Amino acid sequence: MGKLSGKTAVITGGNSGIGLSTAKAFVDEGANVVIFGRDQKSLDDAVETLGEAAIGVRGDVTSDTDLDALYAAAKERFGKVDALFANAGIADFAPLADASVDHFDRVFDVNVKGVFKTVQRGIDALSDGASVVLTTSVSNTKGMASMSAYSASKAAVRSFARTFSAELVARGIRVNAISPGPVATPIYTRAGLSEDEIEAMGAGMADQIPLKRFAEPREIASAVLFLASSDSSYVVGTELVVDGGWTQI
Ligand SMILES: NC(=O)c1ccc[n+]([C@@H]2O[C@H](COP(=O)([O-])OP(=O)(O)OC[C@H]3O[C@@H](n4cnc5c(N)ncnc54)[C@H](OP(=O)(O)O)[C@@H]3O)[C@@H](O)[C@H]2O)c1
User: Fold this and answer.
1) Statement: residue 193 has pLDDT above 90
2) By residue range, what is the domain housing residue 14?
3) Residue at 2 is within a domain
4) Which long-range contacts (CB under 8 A, 24 or more apart) does 210-214 make?
5) Which residues line ligand 1 (CB under 6 A)?
6) Which residues in 8-161 belong to E strands, given as ranges?
7) What angle do CA 55, 32, 110 make, to 5 degrees?
């Protein structure tokens, strides 16, 4: 019997990186999963990898219509939603002096409003006793150059874990945040960094991390599994930091 047997999970950003690795971990533990993202090809590839327990829904977290279609599809196929991993996000870095309003709005639209709407539009679909996990980042507590909009967006998400919990706990719904340090995913290439820039940034960060390396996505997925399952039944409104000790030592 898996930790999520008979449960249905919705995972935004489930077609890449941390979200895809979490979808695999959830399916391995017996869950049905509904993955959501904008890119049809990677959604199709992910569903093929995940097998019959998975469906993909194409859409954008900034669109109420797309989010409504996501929860409608989840309910139609699996009848309910017991776990929600609001994980979709973008990295977009710019020094304060050069950062445009467009840059700021882009980051906040996806990372803050997108998470807010993902949970808001899902409230009716969530079962009583459901678990909601939000993806923040250790950048919410570290001051790193060129990351003002991104880090502030993740601080807002960390705050949501508290306020959403306060509102939903009466239904037994727990909301927590997962807070990764650097993880080896496509997010850095998507942020527009060249391979050389990624390598230089990676070496610089890895040097500061006590474990001297980036996390693998599955190392984040196993912590999300803990928060999504009844193993964390007394954990509410918190942030689980998974960063190789970066912010702690
Ligand atoms: N990698 C790290 O070092 C790290 C560290 C801390 C926190 N995080 C956070 O972890 C989360 C997952 O990132 P990742 O590293 O796994 O990166 P990734 O591989 O780039 O995955 C990002 C996912 O979000 C989806 N997404 C982005 N914008 C979207 C939108 N507007 N609507 C719907 N889906 C959208 C992407 O799918 P489509 O492009 O198909 O839409 C993709 O599946 C993000 O919130 C990120 O900020 C990452």
Assistant:
1) no
2) 8-242
3) no
4) 210/244, 210/245, 210/246, 210/249, 211/244, 211/245, 212/244, 213/244, 214/181, 214/182, 214/183, 214/184
5) 12-13, 15-19, 37-39, 42, 60-62, 87-91, 110, 114, 135, 137, 180, 182-183, 185-187, 190
6) 8-12, 32-37, 54-58, 81-86, 126-135
7) 60
- pLDDT recorded at residue 191: 86
Q: Which of 11, 12, 16 to mutate to test the pocket of ligand 1 (most atoms within 8 A of CB)?
A: 16
Ligand 1 geometric centre to CA of 138 (Å)? 15
State the Cα–Cα distance between residues 203 and 94, nearest whole angstrom.
20
Domain assignment present for 214: yes
Number of domains forming the structure of the chain? 1
Residue 3 in any domain: the answer is: no
Q: What is the CATH number of the domain that holds 143?
A: 3.40.50.720
As a whole number of angstroms, the distance between CA 176 and CA 163 comes to 10
pLDDT per residue as tens digits for the range 60-99 = 999 999 999 999 999 999 999 999 999 999 999 999 999 9
First-residue to last-residue Cα distance in the chain = 37
**Is 247 contained in some domain?**
no
- Residue 108 phi, psi (nearest 5): -70, -35
DSSP string, 103-139: HHHHHHIIIIIHHHHHHHHHTTTEEEEEEEEEE--GG
